[in-house]
Design brief:
Number of helices: 17
Radius of gyration: 21 Å
Strand order of the largest sheet: 9-10-8-7-6-5-4-1-13
Shape: globular
Structural class: alpha/beta
Number of strands: 19
Helix content: 25-40%
Strand content: 15-25%
Largest sheet: 9 strands, mixed
């Protein structure tokens, strides 16, 4: 019996927001001193030319969504806001003290958790506090994630006044049965309300996040969700596969049984149905899991081959240095990664001793930097090349041999010194990247580490 491509390639694999992926970081060779030197080097190379990016993790949520794999703290006690904002600004000041000049901030992304858990006053205190020690770069792009159930007009207006022009709202799915399973009851009316508010205020890019592969989800659910989404005309969409990783997130992802999840061909049909509907409604596929209208900066960046990808996801502009502030945040200097402690109490404690709350990281060697570039090319441009000698590496013949079957399945075209992903290969970009992942090749996981690729 012939198996489908989905069955063949649906294996556990990384999402490639970084290379090396976090489980393969060499923590033994990492020190805070090495990280400090690395981000100072990157800052001196890039600040004046492009500016830097800030990812700010706001971890608090009022309730647990069982599909979520993010680092969060569930509480209805809003007195935690001021303490956390003070800690973020303390961490930012520690970074700024290590810099030779005032940073130019090109990008800010507020992620979570639930950024709109925070009051208007505290959001303003955070952003104004950042710019007491920094300036805005030219053509800056500030964005945040909003929960449709608790985002207020006042929050949207204040963040707009502070320079934010992009907002994304988590939709997931509109079916009541699916919403109950993932503990995210969110009526269409709430999403429509905040979307219209954002348009009225003047946001240039409004995004919706939709997930396929959720428990009890059917093709009819996907059709209904995308039809409702299309009626609101967001500028861009994240349409991505549910990452089922209960071994990492514990009971937070055990609000339903395994048999309730659509699998293999059934799950793939959810994606293909959604993709056709989005294309019909004027959305263009961008990189992996993303769709955008031609007027949106994400599509324009992809069309101009200027798309970038990091721990914040896809970005229309590239900065070499990204500093992550907040509990569990990851920073990226291009030459190294550094992650803050995931424990909120430890985060506060380390900052009280005037230390950066970094607890682990990875210093990229020459090989890592080459492979990282190839994986970025594949995930952003759907092609890569080694015509430039600097992108050749000695294991390349082995990688090409590993890709032979993927080539035979017409998911890629290998011609001369170039690989190009075909339209049929788009759902399998992660599998193609895995062939380049030398850390994964040298040491296969002995336990569950990654969600399924398809």
């Amino acid at each position: 019996m012939k198996i489908s491509l989905t069955q063949k390639y649906n294996v556990p694999g990384p999402r490639y927001t970084s290379y090396p992926t976090v489980p393969y970081w060499n923590e033994a060779d990492f020190t805070l001193e090495k990280w400090t030197a690395s981000f100072q080097k990157s800052f001196s190379e890039s600040n004046t030319q492009n500016g830097i990016s800030l990812y700010i993790h706001l971890p608090f949520c009022e309730s647990m969504c069982t599909f979520c794999g993010c680092n969060k703290r569930i509480t209805k006690n809003h007195s935690v806001e001021e303490i956390y904002i003070d800690a973020l600004l303390k961490e930012w000041s520690l970074y700024c003290k290590l810099l030779p000049e005032k940073p130019l901030v090109k990008e800010i992304h507020l992620g979570g958790g639930t950024p709109t858990f925070f009051s208007v006053a505290n959001l303003e205190n955070l952003i104004s506090g950042i710019f007491k020690l920094a300036d805005k770069a030219k053509n800056y792009e500030f964005s945040f994630e909003g929960h449709p159930n608790n985002t207020t007009y006042e929050q949207l207006k204040k963040l707009y006044d502070l320079g934010f022009r992009r907002v994304s709202f988590g939709v997931q799915d509109y079916a009541e049965k699916v919403q109950k399973a993932i503990h995210r009851i969110q009526p269409f009316h709430n999403v429509a309300k905040v979307t219209f508010w954002a348009k009225e205020i003047g946001y240039k890019s409004i995004g919706h996040d939709i997930i396929f592969g959720l428990p009890f989800q059917t093709v009819e659910n996907i059709v209904d969700t995308i039809e409702k989404t299309n009626s609101l005309k967001p500028d861009r969409l994240a349409f991505y596969s549910y990452a089922h990783v209960p071994w990492i997130k514990g009971n937070g992802q055990r609000g339903f049984n395994e048999e309730n999840l659509p699998k293999d061909a059934e799950k793939r049909m959810l994606y293909e149905t959604g993709k056709i509907l989005l294309s019909t409604n004027g959305y263009h596929e961008v990189g992996m899991d993303h769709f955008a209208q031609s007027s949106d900066s994400l599509f324009q960046a992809a069309h101009a081959k200027k798309l970038h990808r990091n721990f914040m996801g896809y970005s229309a502009s590239k900065t070499q240095l990204m500093i992550g502030l907040g509990v569990s945040s990851i920073s990226d200097s291009w030459y190294s990664f550094a992650q803050n402690t995931k424990n909120l109490e430890e985060y506060y404690q380390i900052l009280q001793s005037n230390q950066l709350p970094v607890v682990k990281g990875h210093i990229l060697n020459d090989e890592d930097l080459i492979i990282r570039k190839h994986i970025l090319n594949l995930t952003c441009e759907l092609e890569t090349s080694w015509s430039n000698e600097s992108l050749y590496f000695k294991e390349l013949p082995e990688v090409l041999l590993a890709l032979k079957e993927i080539e035979n399945d017409e998911l890629i075209i290998i011609k001369g010194n170039k690989i190009k992903i075909t339209e049929a290969g788009r759902p399998f970009v992660r599998n193609i990247c895995m062939a380049f992942d030398l850390h994964l090749k040298r040491k296969s996981p002995e336990t569950n580490l990654f969600s399924m690729t398809v």
